[in-house]
Structures are given as C-alpha cells and as structure tokens.
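Sequence design from tokenized structure. All designs in this work follow the same two-part layout: the structure record, then the generated sequence. An example of the structure record is given first.
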C-alpha cells in the first residue's frame, strides 16, 4: 500500500530525505490510529498483525530515498512537473506542519462526540493518495471473561485438592479487554495519547470494564474475617514465595490482561505496590481469585493450597476470637442479685507481676515490723500481661514454657482472662495464630474418657473443626495453650512412667495428654502458659525448661483504681476508699484481688439495701471470715472432694493451734518438717485450702529448704483467734488462763467475758504488739453477723448472747489502766470492732446470700 505512492519532485532547495521519512512514518501511524475510530460500536479491540509495522515502512522509504538520489543528478529542465495530491500541501509544508490540511482533519475529529476515545488535534498530514487498507481479514477480541470463584468456595475444604487436573472451569480468564498496536507508544512524542472522554448523563454508551464479576449470590454476606489487612498479607506472603522470573511473568500477565487497572508497566512495581494496586482496583474476593488464577497459569499448586489454607485459618481464627470474647468479655458481680454483667475492661486493673518468683508472703503489718523472710532476695522486674511470652521476650530466649505462680486470691484467673481478651481483640500476642484456653476445671469433663487432644479442642471450641492435622504441626501455624489452675488437676502427673504421645489425634486418657503437653512431647512447637499456685511447681518435669514469674496482686495505686472502676458512682467509690484507708489492716489485705472484690461486694450490698448515705461497718473480722469460707468452700471444692463439717472443724483447730503457737514465739513461717509436728500436711493447707503458701529458702550454698507460711500475718492472727474462740464455744476451754500460764483448763463458768479478760491481759503484756490484731479478731468473733457465718463450725446450736456491753466496759477499763500508747490505740480499735455490732445487725438480713 505504501509502494503506490510517487516519489517527491526535486526542488531548488534539496528536500531532506530524513524529514520526508519522518513525515511518512507519522502519516502511517496516524492512519493506523485513525482506524481505531472508524467503528464506534466494535471498540473492544483489533488484531494488529495486518497493519504494516515499522520495518516495512522503513524498507519502502529506503527505495524512495534511492529514487531521490537519482533525481538529484538531473537538471531542472529534465524534470517534468508533478502535481501534488489534491487538497495537499508541499512536502516542506507537510513536514513543517504548515498548510491547509489541518483544518479539515480537526473539523472531522470534533464531529465525533460519541467516541469512547478521541484523538487530539494535531498538525496536517500528507495525503498520499487513495489507497485504503484491506481490513476484510481483521478480527476482534471479546472482553475478558469473569471469574467464577468466590471467597467462600476458595476457603472450603473441598476446594483444596492438589491432584485436580480439570480445566479450571472456575478460574479467571485473563484475556485483554482492549489492545493497541505494537507500534503505538504511550511515551512517544510523535504519538497521540488516548484520553478517555467524560460522558454526559444523556449518553447511552455501554462501558467496558475489566473488573471480574463474582458468580456467587450478591446477597450473600462477606465473611467478617475477610479484611483488607488480611487480604494484603495473604497475597503478599503467597506471591513472595515466587522467584524473580515468575514474578515478572505475573506482572506481564496483569499488564496485558488488565490495562485499565495496570495502565503503566508493572515491571517497575515491587511486590507491595503490585498487591496494593490489585486490592485498590478490585474487591477483596476478586483479588484472591485473580491471585489463584495467576498461580494456576504458572502451575503453582502448592502456593494455591497455601493461599487457601491461609483463608481457612483466617476464618477459624476470627470465629475463635468471637467465642473467646463472648466467654471472657464480661464479668458478673457477686453482690448483684439481678445477674447483670459488666465488660471486663471496665473493671480490670493492672496487676503487680514480677519477673522473679519465690518472693514469699506479703509481710506488711499495721502494728509490727516483721523482718523479711528468707526468700528470694533479688528484686525482679515489673511486667505486664502483654510481656508474658511476648514476641520480644521470645527473641531473647528460646523458652516456650512460662509458669505463672501466685498465692490464692492473687489474681491469676484475672491475668489469664486479660491475656485471652488481649489476643482475641488484637492487642497482644498477635504472632500466635490460635490461642486455646484449657481451664483445668473444664477439662474435668474428660476424666475417665478415651479422647484425643483434637477431640478436647474441638469439643471446647467447635469452630476449630475446619482445621486439619497439618495446621497443628507446621511451623508457620503457631499455637498457644493456656492452662488456668494446674493446681486443680486431680489426675496423676507421672512424668517417669507415662507413655509417650506425639499424635494429637490419638485417643488416650486425660492424664497422658496433660503429661505429654507439659513435657513438650505433644505439639512441641506450641507455646505453653500455665497459671498455678506455688505448690504445683513440682508438677513441672525437671527436664522441661521454663521461666517462672509471680503475681503479687495489687499495689496501692491498683487498689484505688479497682475501687473506682468497681463503683460506678464516684461518691460511693470515694467513700469506700476513704473507709479502707482508715483501717491499715484492711488496706494492706486489699492487695489480694479476691479479698478486695469481697469488700466491694459487701459495701455495694449495703448501699443498695440501706441507701448510699449509710455508714459503713468498721469491723474487719466479718470480712476475714468471708475470705476463710471462700477459700475453704468452693475454691477448695475445685481441688478436692468436699469434707464433712467435723473434718473441717478438726482441721481448723489444728491449723489455729499452730498459728497461735507460732505467734507467741514470733514465728511467721515453719519448715516443712516442723509443720508435721502439728499433724498437718502441706498439700491440704497450701494446695487445697489456700490458707498457706510454700516457698523455697537457700540457707546454704547448693542447699534449699521448703518452708510454709500463712498467706499473710493477719490471716495467722485470725486463725489463732478462731482457735481460741472455738475452744471456748465448743469445749468450754479458756486458753489464756491467768492462774495456769501456758496451760489451758476447763473453765467451770460459762461466762464469755472471762475469755476476753484473759486474752486482753495477755495482749497487754506483749510490748511489741504481736497480739494486738489477734485481740481485735477475738472480740469480733462473738458478733452476731460473724457467728452466723461460722454456724457450720459450732457443735451446738447458736444462742445469741449479749456480751458487747460487758466487753466494751472491760476495754474502757483497760484503756484507763494502760500507760502504753500503742496498747491504748489498739484497745480503741477493739472498741470500734464491738461498736460495729449495730451496723452488722442492719446488714445481717442479707448475709445468707453472701455466704460461701
């Protein structure tokens, strides 16, 4: 078609052959591009193979240049005038862009308002004669097919079949929706740019789009787990496993198949930019489908399975988080009879957690200065729940097993709940794919059954049934197990003779599963977080590396913060805080979350029953009795079978006798060997009832000794007072007899005032005040509100006796006779304890609902 054009004439000024070639090539390109506009209704694409390329045009130009050279040797007289084409201009004018042809071209282009694309006005071109292209053999390409996969089908287990060889009927057909000639360069200055027209509302021109459509039901809701963050990470992680050449192939496919989305060559994009563009242009489901289709073209079946596995784990993780939020996200107040619950975040207060264990009991005391027990002398670093098994900690240590110990009521279950909610709400431990809380109380339902670890997990958390065995074993899927209350496990932890178990789907008994989990034989890639009382330390295998940290309850700031959160009325919270601060013993004991929660329950009940302006009772004996019954009641029942009233009474008498003996000798701890002198077993006092704690001392190098102490010195004083009171109440014995020092005899008189006289005089003889708090507890034992709680420990029916007036008269007389200011102050506290009888009577009507 180019060969039919005549050579240009030789003019007086030599025509530059290069200029003419440029004009000829430009004309040919404009003619090719002009063909794009001729058919408005078939704009989806064309086949560029039939259009002459650059090489053909250059060959023709070479023949014309040869003719021009031969003409340049001739004289002007030998040349015959050759007319220029009609409507055209001279060659020089065409090359320079001057002439009259441009106006006609511009007017034709302005008339085509309905074109999808238009060509901006440009300089006039040469009319090289009528020589239309033969377009009879040209063909058009249909728009790209839509994908058929949906996110739901991608994440179904049935879709994960690596051996499927079918024709991928559900894949996205990556066919280019529109194409341009290979000789057309968007970056060339000699080429017109295709600019999309802005269409008006009245125009009814069908739009072409390269956005794939979903074959699923549009009304079907998207799974909440499918988020932009997950989709971005999943695609990046999957495509990041490809080689450099494979990534170039992926970019090339996207460039040729989706030009409207990737309108610039994506070879310059890195992986992050590429995935970001993909998610920006398409829905999340479509982005995952397109990624799957691209991998199918590269025959990357393992990567397709990897992407599908990530989608399944993402859904399971989301469902598991929702279950944990529902289970642990709310807490109920024991004093709330209406059964209302509050969000855990509204009442949780940060606990005092130290990086070193074996710190012994809290020895703060209102009256005495007790020397620090021979425990861990180092001061540990304060931690938060987010620091336990954190990613930063694991970078410094390979230990995947952490034992969190704490005395009874120190907030272990509260800390475990905080860790669970922080993970489920995305605040901490996000490197863990799945966190499975396994409270020992809930595992008791599997006792005497043949089960596997997977059976246990799927029973407690049914949403995990989508997981496969590979998800529990692979390194990429990190699992954390949280055992709350290892000291409550009643099974046998025989680490020497228990069979080895490595298969999580193998059925066996619960003891074998727990032993192999603790030894790290079962799911050794997992992380283990165990909460327990200190005695359970021997339940950890000696050859298992682990870190031990300790919970110490609340510090002073934490006590106030907890009460402010617990009481919604700021005025009530301020009154309770002021009242607790008025009693140093009560303030110190509130370091135990269990104790301070009981105090808050009691005062909340008083406010509701008697009004917010009522006076709060000043006795502390009643709160210690509630703590005693709570530890010996349902807290003990989790760890041992219930005991009869007689067994419970005998146990408290032995423990109280040991407490009084230690108190008189200024001792606050005993070795495990000395403990047996009183007929006591450490397992019962430390593990089951929780009235004592076990700690390790190292009196010599390479030698350690186990010691037992009460959870607090005031608990020791309370149990000593309970022993004296029960001795008189059940047996008529008065321990502090003025006539037989150090002995007790059966007192013929039934006057309770004689018991108080002996104890008061004994207390006044101790200059260091070691019996001051004991005496206060003893006077509070006889109050009606307290005796109602202790009825189970009495051998005869309760007969309410009015001794308060006689006891108050005794205390006033001793205050006058005593010269020691410290003893006078304590006697005044004893008087306040008795005067609380009236307030106790007002609240005794609801005491039955508060019993433990």
């Amino acid at each position: 078609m180019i060969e039919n054009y005549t050579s240009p004439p030789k003019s007086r000024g030599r025509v530059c052959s290069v200029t003419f070639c440029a004009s000829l090539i430009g004309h040919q390109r404009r003619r090719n591009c002009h063909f794009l506009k001729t058919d408005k209704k078939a704009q989806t694409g064309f086949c560029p193979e039939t259009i002459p390329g650059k090489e053909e045009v250059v060959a023709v130009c070479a023949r014309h240049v040869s003719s021009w050279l031969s003409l340049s040797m001739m004289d002007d007289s030998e040349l015959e005038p050759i007319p220029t084409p009609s409507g055209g201009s001279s060659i020089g004018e065409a090359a320079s862009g001057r002439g009259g042809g441009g106006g006609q071209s511009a007017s034709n282009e302005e008339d085509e308002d309905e074109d999808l694309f238009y060509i901006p006005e440009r300089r006039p071109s040469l009319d090289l004669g009528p020589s239309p292209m033969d377009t009879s053999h040209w063909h058009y390409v249909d728009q790209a097919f839509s994908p058929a996969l949906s996110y739901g089908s991608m994440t179904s287990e049935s879709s994960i079949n690596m051996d499927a060889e079918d024709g991928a009927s559900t894949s996205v057909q990556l066919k280019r929706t529109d194409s341009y000639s290979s000789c057309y360069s968007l970056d060339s200055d000699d080429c017109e740019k295709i600019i999309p027209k802005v269409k008006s509302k009245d125009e009814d021109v069908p739009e072409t789009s390269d956005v794939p459509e979903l074959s699923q039901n549009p009304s079907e809701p998207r799974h909440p787990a499918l988020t932009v963050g997950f989709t971005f990470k999943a695609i990046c992680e999957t495509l990041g496993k490809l080689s450099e050449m494979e990534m170039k192939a992926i970019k090339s496919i996207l460039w040729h198949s989706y030009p409207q989305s990737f309108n610039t060559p994506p070879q310059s994009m890195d992986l992050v930019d590429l995935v970001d563009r993909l998610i920006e242009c398409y829905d999340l489901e479509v982005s995952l489908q397109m990624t799957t289709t691209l991998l199918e073209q590269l025959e990357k079946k393992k990567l397709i399975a990897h992407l599908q596995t990530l989608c399944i784990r993402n859904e399971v993780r989301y469902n598991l988080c929702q279950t944990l939020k529902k289970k642990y996200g709310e807490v109920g107040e024991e004093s709330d009879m209406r059964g209302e619950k509050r969000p855990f975040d509204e009442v949780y207060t940060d606990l005092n957690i130290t990086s070193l264990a074996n710190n012994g009991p809290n020895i703060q005391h209102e009256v005495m200065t007790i020397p620090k027990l021979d425990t861990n002398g180092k001061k540990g670093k304060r931690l938060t729940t987010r620091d336990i098994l954190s990613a930063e900690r694991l970078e410094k240590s390979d230990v995947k097993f952490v034992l969190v110990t704490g005395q009874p009521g120190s907030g272990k279950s509260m800390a475990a709940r905080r860790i669970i909610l922080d993970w489920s709400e995305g605040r901490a431990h996000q490197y863990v794919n799945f966190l499975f809380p396994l409270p020992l109380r809930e595992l008791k339902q599997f006792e005497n059954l043949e089960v596997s670890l997977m059976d246990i997990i799927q029973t407690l958390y049914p949403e995990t049934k989508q997981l496969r065995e590979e998800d529990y074993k692979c390194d990429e899927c990190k699992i954390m197990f949280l055992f709350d209350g290892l000291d409550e496990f009643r099974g046998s932890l025989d680490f020497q003779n228990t069979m080895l178990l490595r298969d999580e789907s193998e059925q066996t008994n619960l003891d074998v599963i727990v032993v192999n989990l603790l030894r790290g034989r079962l799911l050794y890639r997992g992380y283990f977080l165990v909460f327990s009382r200190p005695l359970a330390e021997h339940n950890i295998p000696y050859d298992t590396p682990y870190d031990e940290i300790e919970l110490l309850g609340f510090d002073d700031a934490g006590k106030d913060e907890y009460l402010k959160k617990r009481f919604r009325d700021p005025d009530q919270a301020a009154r309770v805080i002021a009242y607790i601060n008025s009693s140093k013993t009560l303030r110190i004991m509130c370091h135990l979350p269990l104790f301070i929660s009981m105090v808050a329950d009691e005062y909340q009940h008083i406010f509701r029953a008697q009004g917010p302006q009522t006076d709060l009772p000043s006795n502390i004996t009643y709160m210690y009795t509630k703590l005693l019954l709570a530890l010996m009641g349902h807290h003990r029942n989790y760890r041992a079978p219930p005991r009869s009233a007689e067994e419970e009474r005998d146990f408290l008498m032995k423990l109280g006798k040991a407490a009084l003996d230690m108190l008189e000798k200024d001792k606050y701890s005993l070795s495990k060997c000395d403990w047996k002198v009183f007929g006591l077993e450490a397992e019962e006092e430390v593990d089951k009832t929780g009235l004592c704690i076990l700690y390790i001392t190292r009196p010599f190098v390479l030698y350690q000794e186990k010691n037992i102490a009460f959870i607090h010195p005031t608990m020791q004083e309370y149990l000593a007072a309970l022993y004296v009171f029960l001795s008189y109440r059940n047996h008529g014995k008065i321990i502090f007899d003025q006539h037989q020092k150090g002995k007790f005899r059966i007192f013929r008189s039934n006057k309770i005032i004689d018991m108080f006289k002996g104890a008061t005089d004994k207390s006044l003889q101790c200059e260091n005040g070691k019996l001051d708090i004991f005496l206060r507890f003893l006077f509070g034992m006889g109050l009606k509100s307290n005796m109602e709680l202790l009825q189970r420990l009495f051998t005869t029916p309760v007969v309410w006796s009015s001794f308060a007036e006689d006891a108050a008269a005794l205390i006033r007389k001793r205050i006058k006779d005593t010269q020691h200011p410290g003893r006078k102050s304590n006697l005044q506290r004893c008087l306040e304890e008795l005067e609380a009888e009236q307030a106790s009577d007002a609240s005794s009507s609801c005491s039955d609902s508060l019993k433990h």
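The chain has a mean pLDDT of 75. We note this feature because it recurs in several other targets discussed in the main text.
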